[in-house]
Amino acid sequence: MNVDFYIENSYHISKLITKKYSTSFSLATSLLEKEKKRAIYAVYGFVRLADEIVDSLDGFDKAFLLNKLNDDLNYALENDISTNTVLVAFADTVKKYKINHALIKSFMDSMEYDLSKTTYDSHADLDKYIYGSANVVGLMCLKIFCNGESCLYESLELPAQRLGSAFQKVNFLRDIKEDIQSLGRTYFPEITEGELNEENIKHIELSIKKDFDEAWVGIKQLPGRSKLAVALAYYYYNGLFKKILRTPPEKIMSKRIRISNIRKYLIILKTAFMYKAKLI
């Protein structure tokens, strides 16, 4: 086994992680061109690994494990190799697409917040967390989509961040029961004493809708099949958002809202038609 074989199999492992953890994200990613596809798998594998440490490894020393991941990450970025295959694929992608290391640091900083910070009392605090946990991931993906076109990247930075913000806030609403009851976290400043009601959800709705509207402007300017893939993710999350809004607050607090498989299939057909008809 040589280094190239090792790196290639590292990408396959990140692809497997993506497919096992998120069918919707994996489906959208599968629509990309080959090289962009494997790069997005690498980014997802990395962020999923960090997220699993802070959210799922109960009973273990999460702070130690996250610090270890950070040390291994820095080594991989500096030396282009690691015994952690997820980091091998990610470091290779970072190098190929010249992803700014400051984005990666912001992401890891937000993961550290999840180890100790349980409430966000102001929108400034929440925005800072979302920037590190979601917006920078959108910017990493944008680097891959633009593939060296710096002017295009700069023009789409804000829409990419807005899309990451919208996705993250929808995730917060979808996972609100588990976040509050299992992890003891409350992300939205509007929610006090762990209570979701018609009044505070209306404020949250306006914020997410604004993010989606600003993101759509950028999606229409993405190159190649990146436009198709991101549009599919957009319509999926927008559909999930609308379903959450149609759900009574007490039900949102008691069960995880999902999009049915039939609805997902219809979203795929709609997005494919709009892309072929050049409506996006």
Provide a quick synopsis of the model.
With 280 residues, the chain is mainly α. The chain has helices spanning 3-21, 23-29, 34-56, 62-79, 85-97, 101-116, 123-146, 150-174, 176-181, 198-219, 226-245, 249-252, 261-276. 38% of the residues are buried.
Essential attributes:
13 helices; 2 domains; mainly alpha; globular; Phytoene/squalene synthetase; Farnesyl Diphosphate Synthase; Trans_IPPS_bact-type; 280 residues
Describe what this molecule looks like in 3D:
The protein is mostly helical and 280 residues long. It folds into two domains: 1-97, no CATH class; 100-280, Farnesyl Diphosphate Synthase (Orthogonal Bundle), CATH 1.10.600.10. It is 76% helix and 0% strand. It contains 13 helices and no strands. Helix 1 (3-21) crosses helix 2, helix 10 (198-219) packs antiparallel against helix 11 (226-245) and helix 11 (226-245) packs across helix 13. The mean pLDDT is 95.
In terms of topology, how is this protein built?
Layout: H1 3-21, H2 23-29, H3 34-56, H4 62-79, H5 85-97, H6 101-116, H7 123-146, H8 150-174, H9 176-181, H10 198-219, H11 226-245, H12 249-252, H13 261-276
Helix pairs in contact: 1-2, 1-3, 1-5, 2-11, 3-5, 3-6, 3-7, 4-5, 4-6, 6-7, 7-8, 8-10, 8-11, 10-11, 11-13
Strand content: under 5%
Helix content: over 70%
- The count of domains is 2
How many strands appear in the DSSP assignment?
0
Helix/strand-derived category reads mainly alpha
Radius of gyration: 19 Å
Instruction: Tell me which oligomeric state these chains represent.
Output: single chain
If you consult CATH, what is the topology of the largest domain? Farnesyl Diphosphate Synthase
Low-confidence stretches: none
Q: For the record, what CATH class of the largest domain applies? A: Mainly Alpha
CATH architecture of the largest domain, please?
Orthogonal Bundle
Let me know the CATH homologous superfamily of the largest domain: Farnesyl Diphosphate Synthase
The end-to-end distance, rounded to whole angstroms, is 45 Å
Encode the helix/strand succession as letters.
Answer: HHHHHHHHHHHHH
